[in-house]
Amino acid sequence: MKRREFTLAAAVAAVPGLLSLPAHAQSGKGYAELAQRAPVDAPKGQIEVLEFFSYGCIHCMHFEPIMDAWVKTLPKDVAFRRVHVGFQSNFAPLQKIYYTLEAMGKVDGAMQEKIFKTLQVDHKRLDKPDVLFAWAAEQGLDRAKFESTYNSFGVATQLRKAVQMQDAYKVEGTPALGIGGRFYTDGSMAGGFEGMVKLANQLIEQVRKSA
């Protein structure tokens, strides 16, 4: 979903609102090469691949099974991680859900599917802490630990890092992929989800050859 398509009117499913302009020119290649390289957290010898997403994005829910299957095929020299975008301050509640689960070691395909369904299909307001904490307990998570982690300095730090990374890649919308601190693509640029994955494979190989 493009930044400008996140509207407060669509907040029925807890989608935070924002307005912004595209940052990448359409080159026809299906991807953009960053003028200034983004920072990379992957260990030396690893190619970092980032998925920029939001729980408030219906397209991210649809991309999730494709992305999840693709990640399982990635070579050992590829380090994959998700970045929950924070285009505006009202994205923070959904960001905090992801980084809380990550800190607790509870991020997996099943949990991602549950959260997307709860927000996008059931329209449950997980951006409201009282609703969220009760829901977390229903999923078998330790409510006290979830609450303390959600409100922790560590999670707040991850939110700031996520914003820094999305800005470094000049993320226009979600879902999107960042490769090796050098390349960016999204569904609009690549012509769909399958195009994103195909391009990402090519760009991973390009980064590998130039290492």
Give the topology, please:
Blueprint: E1 32-33, E2 47-53, H1 58-71, E3 78-84, H2 92-103, H3 109-121, H4 129-138, H5 143-150, H6 153-168, E4 176-179, E5 183-186, H7 187-190, H8 193-210
Parallel strand pairs: 2-3
Antiparallel strand pairs: 1-5, 2-4, 4-5
Helix pairs in contact: 1-3, 2-6
Can you offer a commentary on this structure?
It is a single chain. By secondary structure, the chain is of the alpha+beta class. It contains eight helices and five strands, in the order ββαβαααααββαα. The chain has helices at 58-71, 92-103, 109-121, 129-138, 143-150, 153-168, 187-190, 193-210, and strands at 32-33, 47-53, 78-84, 176-179, 183-186. The two termini are 32 Å apart. The relative contact order is 0.20.
Q: How would you briefly describe this protein structure?
A:
The protein has helices at residues 58-71, 92-103, 109-121, 129-138, 143-150, 153-168, 187-190, 193-210, and strands at 32-33, 47-53, 78-84, 176-179, 183-186. It is of the alpha+beta class and 211 residues long.
SS-derived structural category:
alpha+beta
Give the rounded overall mean pLDDT: 88
Q: Report the oligomer.
A: single chain
Low-confidence spans: pLDDT under 50, at least 5 residues?
4-26
